[in-house]
Design goal:
about 55 residues, mainly alpha, about 0% strand
């Protein structure tokens, strides 16, 4: 009987040793990888520009 009780706890996803939620929901972003690459390139050029102007 103890094995059936333990399996019912595992199916619910709530075991006594869990501190947080059983599932982690990851939010998908609408921006593509090329958008992040373009933002990175613009910020890189801007940071080099600031570096050469002030130093």
């Amino acid at each position: 009987m103890e094995l059936q009780d333990e399996s019912s706890l595992d199916d619910s996803g709530n075991s006594p040793s869990d501190d947080g939620p059983a599932e982690v929901n990851i939010v998908e972003t609408p921006l593509s990888q090329s958008t992040y690459l373009a933002i990175w390139a613009i910020s890189l050029v801007a940071s080099f520009g600031i570096f050469f102007v002030y130093f």
